[in-house]
Amino acid sequence: MKPMKAADGVFRVTVPTPFAVGPVNIFVVVKENKAMIVDAGPNTEEAWMELKEAFNVLGLKKDNIDAILLTHHHPDHTGLINYFHPDTPIYGHRRLIPWLEKDPAFADQYKNYFRSLSIKMGVPKEFLEYTPTVDEYLKFGGLGSVHTLLDEGDRVPGFEEWQVYYTPGHAQSHISLLRDDGVFIAGDVLLENISSNAIIEPPYNESDEAPYTLLQYRDSLRKCLALPIKSVLPGHGNAYVFQDDLINQKLLEQQQRREKIYLLIKEGKRTTLEIGMTMFKNSWKNQLDLVLSEVQGHLDWLRAEGVVTVNESGGVWFYKTN
After folding, report:
1. Whole-model pTM?
2. What is the torsional sign of CA 15, 100, 283, 238?
């Protein structure tokens, strides 16, 4: 697909992915004699050919890209860093580091955490085959190092008109960029037509508690409400004019799902898997990891508010209303 102008000095390149979410956007930011890409698609030859063709149209070459900024660590946003010169600086949050470096100790921690968590969520061992392994997940992501760490309030080096906001929930490494004129490169925090799943992640340090990702995501949405955003350039889908109603609707839908899960617990659906199978009858097998993340996030919310309690029996969590 040819690059599309998304805003002044910003072009959108849409590349295919092997994931259920479908195509992903890469944004090419040009400024005077500088060029930066925001996000980098999956690590596939098909995605690279699309990006390379877009560079040709824009009169760019991979070796004169001044920086690669990654909004978060998911493989559909990091994979093509492998195709650039190794000296090209990569910008991102500190929580990108173990993912880009493909730290084997971190990968083992991740695998062990999710195997244990899946059993607690009521997943029988024979169902574990429906969950993607971290190795399958990582093969589409990029391998590299973060050269410049970015966090809340930072300005992007060389592109100082863009300010960084830390927007976790969908990913613990997630940052978004707001230009001084109101253009917002959102990554996956503000998708117009699809849900930004608040994906469960293990704590980055074993001594920490696991994050409540859905509650984080709700906080990130409220943060966006307070920003002077005029237009949104999302990680998936077309650019759109920002309106508060979009965020308010997402917050409302989460509240409605929370209430539905609460009622299911009252009716006797007591484990995360039981609730997920009831709510997502047609997709739970094909997207078991996302279904479990979605349900568990709302269960964590109910627990945090003291509306439900959980008891463990035989290594499985069972929820009940208070």
Report:
1. 0.95
2. negative
> Any residues with CB less than 8 A from the CB of 126 and at least 6 apart, and which?
none
DSSP 141: S
Closest CA to 168 of 107, 226, 230, 212: 212
276-308 per-position pLDDT tens digit: 999 998 888 788 888 999 999 999 999 999 999
Cα-Cα-Cα-Cα dihedral of 27, 31, 36, 39, to 10°? -20
DSSP secondary structure string, 61-117? -GGG--EEE-S---GGGTGGGGGS-TTS-EEE-GGGHHHHHT-HHHHHHHHHHHHHH
Indicate the class that CATH gives domain 104-134+262-321.
mainly alpha
Low-confidence residues of the chain: pLDDT under 70: 129-133, 136
Give the residues across from 163 on adjacent strands.
Answer: 155, 178
Domain ranges (residues) in the chain: 4-101+136-249, 104-134+262-321
CA dihedral for 53, 57, 58, 61, sign (positive or negative): positive
> Element (H or E) spanning 213, and its range?
helix 213-225
CATH of 4-101+136-249, one of 2.40.50.140, 3.60.15.10, 3.40.190.10, 3.10.270.10: 3.60.15.10
Structure-token match 């929930």, residue found: 169
Helices and strands in the chain: count of H runs, count of E runs: 8, 15
